[in-house]
Amino acid sequence: MKPLSQRIQEANALLIPSATPHEGRRGRTYEEPADETRFPFQRDRDRIIHSYSFLRLQGKTQVFAAGEGDHLRTRLTHTMEVAQISRDLARTLGLNEDLSECIALAHDLGHPPFGHAGEEALNAWMHGHGGHFEHNEQSHRIVTVLEKHSSKYPGLNLNLEIVEGLLKHSPLHHTLEARLVNIADSIAYNSHDCDDGLTADLFSREDLLTVPLARQAYEHTRERGTYIRGALQHMLVEDLLKHSSLDSKDNEPISFSPAMAASLKELRNFLWDHMYMHPTVREQAMKGHRIVASLCDLLLKHPNEKIAHLQARTGGTVIEAIKDYVAGMTDAFAAESLSVLS
Ligand code: MG
User: I need a labelling partner for 197 at 20 to 30 A (CA). Which of 64, 72, 267, 329 fits?
Assistant: First the structure.
């Protein structure tokens, strides 16, 4: 077996100069002895996958309530698709595949139950108590405070490139790998939401084909006998790879062509009208919103052991502990907790 340092050096030779090197640049908050076989970001990937927050992604809504249909995405399968696209893009562009994978795997850890409806409910509840809720910030809080990897420090003690890569809207300088994951996220959900919408009969193929980009993807599928999700994803990835210029000093070195960005916007508008605003989806969303809001109110009236434990561990307010507790729940556990408490 070659020594780790030599393997890292050899792997770095495959990266472009603006990529994050495999040993990382920023290090961890708490120093740790080096691993014998895994690169630093590979260790981080394993920590993320083995965390409870990651396991719970399987029980969380993407667009549909988790468990609603065997062939619809959950937050976990969405996350896996983002990781897959991120890895492919990173490898092709000469960026750090392991770092991209880590950011992708952790990017939605902070999503509360019931998707955006749950997020809105938590944010509204927090506003009523002088705070706010935003899922990217919660992902950051999970890996730095709430998860446990060692009794010697809080959080997962991940390399800082990952931790900061989770704060999408922060002014911090982002690595190219973090920017790439942000776009891979949109490639994943725009493609798979078309698939889920069709599977759930929210709209017909004819409806979808009124969108020029979907029509174009459909022509591709006819040539090759494949399916529209893959064709869409392929077109988006190809455009991104062709249009990105990593050596330039552009503000957005990784981006779609202006034409593709416009086409994608049309597809977004279609999905907004026909999927996210569909009565069936809205009804589920409102139900999720009610569950999260009622649960927070009840827990404030009757804080349980979990809240006390969380508060003691994080040193925060009872409000913050309720937010952390509820945000971490799966859809089913939130619904069950509400029926137990009320
Ligand atoms: Mg996502």
Answer: 329
Which runs of consecutive H residues, i.e. helices, occur in 128-202?
A: 135-141, 160-165, 176-199
Rounded to the nearest angstrom, the distance between the alpha carbon of 305 and the centre of ligand 1 is 31
Confidence at residue 83, expressed as pLDDT on a 0 to 100 scale = 98
Distance, CA 76 to ligand 1 centroid (Å)? 10
Q: Report residues near ion ligand 1: CB below 5 Å.
A: 108, 185
Q: Tell how far the Cα of 35 is from the centroid of ligand 1, in angstroms.
A: 30
Segments making up each domain of the chain, as ranges: 11-18+39-341
Cα–ligand 1 centroid distance for 86 (angstroms): 12
Distance 281 CA to ligand 1 centre (A): 18
Q: Ligand 1 mean position to 160 CA, how many Å?
A: 20
Q: 222, exposed or middle or buried, with CB in 10 Å at 0-12, 13-18, 19+?
A: exposed
Q: What is the DSSP letter of 257?
A: -
Give the Å distance between the CA of 253 and the centre of ligand 1: 21
Asked if the model's pLDDT at residue 174 lies above 90, the reply is no
What percent of the chain stands above pLDDT 90?
89
Task: Give 8 Cα–ligand 1 centroid separation in angstroms.
Answer: 30
Nearest to 295 by CA among 279, 311, 306, 283: 306
pLDDT of residue 62: 87
End-to-end CA distance of the chain: 59
Cα 257 to Cα 217: distance, rounded to the nearest angstrom: 17
Q: Give me the CATH code for the 11-18+39-341 domain, please.
A: 1.10.3210.10
Which residues contact residue 136 at a Cβ distance below 8 angstroms, ignoring those fewer than 6 apart? Answer: 107, 110, 166, 167, 168, 169
